[in-house]
Amino acid sequence: MIQISIIRHNNEYSQIKAFGHAEYDDYGKDIICSAVSVLVINAANSLEKFTKDLVLAQTYEDGTTEILLKEHPSKEAVLLIDSLVLGLEGIRNQYGKKYLSVDYKEV
Q1: 40: left (phi over 0), alpha (psi -120 to 50) or beta
Q2: Contact in structure between 33 and 21 (CB atoms under 8 Å)
Q3: 3-class DSSP state for residue 89?
Q4: What DSSP character marks residue 25?
Q5: What is the distance in angstroms between the CA of the first residue and the CA of the last residue of the chain?
Q6: Which of 29, 6, 65, 88 is nearest to 57 (CA)?
Q7: Exposed, middle or buried: residue 5 (CB in 10 Å: 0-12, 13-18, 19+)?
C-alpha cells in the first residue's frame, strides 16, 4: 500500500510524505504507483518552479518522497497542494484504500 501523510502545523501545510508500493500490478505495469508518483513529483516540481516558497523536496533510494515547506505557505503553494490532495483522494476513491492511504496529521 502507498501511504501518504499530509502534515499540517497551525492549520497550514508543512510536509507531505509518500512511501510504500500499491502492489496493484507488476513493476512497470502498476498504474496506481505511476499515477501517485506523477502527482507527487509534479507537485514538488511545481512548488519549486511556480512559487517563491522555501521548499525542500527529496526522493530517497527506497522511493519515499518528502516535500517540506520551510515557512508559511503562500496562496499559490496551498492551491498546488490542494490540487495534489484532490488527485490523491480521487485515486484512492477510484481504486480503494487497499492500495492508497491518505492520512492527515496536525502537529
Answers
A1: alpha
A2: yes
A3: helix
A4: S
A5: 24
A6: 65
A7: middle
- Over residues 3-26, the mean pLDDT reads 96
Beta-carbon contacts of residue 51 (< 8 Å; ≥ 6 apart) = 74, 76, 77, 80
Q: What is this structure's pTM?
A: 0.94
- What pLDDT shows up at residue 28? 87
Alpha-carbon distance values, 25 to 3, 19, 33, 38 (Å): 17, 17, 9, 17
pLDDT of residue 27: 85
| Burial zone of 106 (CB within 10 Å; 0-12 exposed, 13-18 middle, 19+ buried) | exposed
Confirm if 42 and 81 have CB atoms less than 8 A apart.
Answer: no
Q: What digits encode the pLDDT tens for the residues 58-89?
A: 999 999 999 999 999 999 999 999 999 999 99
CB atoms inside a 10 Å sphere around CB 47: 24
Rounded distance, CA 93 to CA 95, Å? Answer: 6
What is the length of the chain?
107
